[in-house]
Amino acid sequence: QHEHRSKITTGEHGLMYSLKCPSRLHSTKEHLRKKRTVAPSSTENEELSQLLKLYKNNKIRTTKYSLLSFLPKNLFEQLHRFANVYFIFLAALNFFTVVEAFQPEIALVPIILVLTVTAVKDIWEDYRRFKSDHFINRLVCQVYSSKQKAYIDQCWKDVRVGDFVRLSCNEIIPADMLLLYSSDPRGVCYIETANLDGETNLKQRQVVLDLPLQGAELNLESFHSRIECENPNNDLSRFRGYMEHPNGVRVGLHNNNLLLRSCTIRNTETVVGIVVYAGHETKAMMNNSGPRYKRSHLERRLNTDVLWCVLLLIIMCLTGAIGHGLWLKNLKDPVFEVDGETSPALAGFYVFWTMIIVLQVLIPISLYVSIEIVKLGQIYFIHNDLALYNEQLDSRIQCRALNITEDLGRIQYLFSDKTGTLTENKMVSCFSRVCVCLSAQAREVVPDPELVRKLSWLCSPTLPLSDGSSGTPSSLEVTYITDFFLALAICNSVVVSSPSQPRHMVPEARTPLKSLEEIKLMFQRFSFSPFSALSPPLIKGSPRSFTSRLFARGKTGSLEGRDVGQAEDRESEDNNIKDTKTNGARQEEEDVIRGVDSESDSDDELLYEAESPDEAALVHAAQAYHCTLRGRSAESLLVDLPGIGSLAVQLLHILPFDSNRKRMSVVVRHPLSGQVVVYTKGADSVIMDLSETPKGAEQAQEIYSHIREQTQKHLDSYARDGLRTLCISKKILEEEEYEVWLKRQLLAESSIENREELLLESAQRLETNLTLLGTTGIVDRLQEEVPETIEALQRAGIKVWVLTGDKKETAINIAYACKLLRPNDQLLTASCGSKDACAALLEQLKLEVQSGEGSLTVLTAAGDHEESSLGSAAGFVLVIDGRTLDWALQEELKSDFLELSCRCNAVICCRSTPLQKSQVVRLVRDQLGVMTLAVGDGANDVSMIQVADVGIGISGQEGMQAVMSSDFAISRFKHLSKLLLVHGHWCYSRLANMILYFIYKNVMYVNLLFWYQFFCGFSGSVMSNSWVLILFNLLFTSVPPLIFGVLDRDTPADTLMELPELYRVAQTSKVYVPYMFWVTVLDAFYQSLVCFFVPYFALAGSDVGALSFGSPINASALLIILLHQVIESRTLTWIHMLVLVLSGGSYFGFVLLFSLFCVSCSPPTNPLGVETLQMSQPLFYIVCALTTVMALLPRYTHPRPHVHCGKFTHKTYTTSGAGVPGEVGRLLIYGLTFFKEHSVSQSPMCAVHSAYECSSLTGKVTQSEPAGSTGNTGRC
Question: CB–CB of 622/629 below 8 Å?
Answer without folding.
Answer: yes
